[in-house]
Amino acid sequence: MLSNIKQEIRNLINDKKFSEILTGSAWALSARVAATLFGLVLSIITVRYYGADIMGILSVLQSFLGLATIFTVLGTKTSILRLIPEHLVKYSPTSAFRLYRKTQYIVIGVSIFSGALFYFGSDYVADKIFSKQYLSFYLSLSAVFIVFKSIMLLNTQAVRGLRLSRIFALMQMLPSASSLLLLICATSFYYTKSNPIYTMLASLAITGIFGWLIMEKEFKDRMRHDDVIHKMPARDILSISLPMLMTATMYFVIGQTGIIMLGMFKDATEVGYYAVAVKLATLTGFVLAAINAVSGPKFSELFHSGRMSELLYVSKKSAKLVFWTTAPILISLIIIGRPLLAILFGQDFVVAYPVLVIVVIGQFANSIAGSNGMFMNMTGNQNSLRNFVLIAAILNIILNLFLIPRIGILGAAVASMVSSSFWNIAAIIFVKNKYKTNIGYFPTLM
């Protein structure tokens, strides 16, 4: 098997058609590795110096912000990744900039309105949904930072659309790196129980403002007075973005419903155990995200320029890269997961090892499917992808409601595994039927 891995990696490196994605993925992957390591150190410091209960509260707030910004971004963080390359190929940088600016104004307006609603409704959410009144202050504080996270998400994807691999890598690392630096300083010089929460929110503001400044500079350097401009009405932007919003919402449901429902049915410590196990089990998510960071704009460019054979070729190569970089990590987590939990987070967290194994098994579906989801979004099949993920999310909610009261964190893990596997398999079958080729990858091992 080791010789197979080496041969596949050599083939990918020597493939000139795939070199752009490989080089960009290397930058994005390095950044994701660094960001993940920063995130692990953040989790370790939080657990050891602030306790599993604060880790649980932090996980709930991150889920809350993730859910809120899915709706405030309105799916534009995916559509902008498709539309910027399309405008650059068909029209001009000025046309792409005006599209970006209009999208940015939409996102800011919706974010401010939504943040105000969440701010004034924080008491209700804390009391009626989570049955934890002490969450009210943290929820209202987080609502103020919704606009910063929304802008951060939009600008990070817009940078991808411009294919600025190094800047995208920096923006990937900045939230966790700045949060870690702030938390170390706060823990050393001004210790309060809520430090991890304050530093996490501050990092969103830093990254959001930085991304805005970068986008302004990069677009202005490319624009010319004689650029061809194609005006795209807001309704047309939203007609593409809203199916992607639904898909992103369902991704969130699949990924975060377990934490939210555990927060409703169980205490904060159990939520902390589950959150740590999922964080380790989804380590390979940074690999897929890094490869998609570069492959997504490339898929859009090839599709809108009519180069279908090259598109399918590059998609298959991307799937191979995903598999051979994620499968070894997943297998290692199963083998050394128990001592890893004990060393990193303490002996108490070993109880989360079965959760780790179950979620890892579900992650193999992502590993095999490759970039199927990104491929569908970039090639105009966003409605079909939305339907698959919607069914998976409904399945996830039903399983969580049934299993968590009975078997706790194990139930949340099973729900995550089943729903993730379902939509990935459905996407593989759809692409195979429509394009008469399989762009997922699983090796034949003798």
Shape: globular
Measured distance between first and last alpha carbons = 8 Å
Determine the mean pLDDT.
83
Number of helices: 18
Question: Can you give the helix content as a percent range?
Answer: over 70%
The total count of strands amounts to 0
Estimate what percentage of residues fall within beta strands. Answer: under 5%
User: Low-confidence runs (pLDDT<50, min 5 residues)?
Assistant: none
Question: Radius of gyration over alpha carbons?
Answer: 21 Å
> How many separate domains?
1
Helix and strand run:
HHHHHHHHHHHHHHHHHH
Major beta sheet summary: none
Structural class, please?
mainly alpha
Explain this structure.
The protein has one domain. It is 85% helix and 0% strand. The protein contains 18 helices and no strands. The mean pLDDT is 83. The protein has 446 residues and is mainly α. Helix 5 (93-120) packs antiparallel against helix 8. 53% of the residues are buried. The chain has helices at 2-14, 19-50, 52-73, 76-90, 93-120, 122-129, 135-144, 146-161, 165-189, 195-222, 234-265, 268-281, 285-304, 308-345, 353-369, 372-378, 382-407, 409-435. It is globular and about 60 Å long.
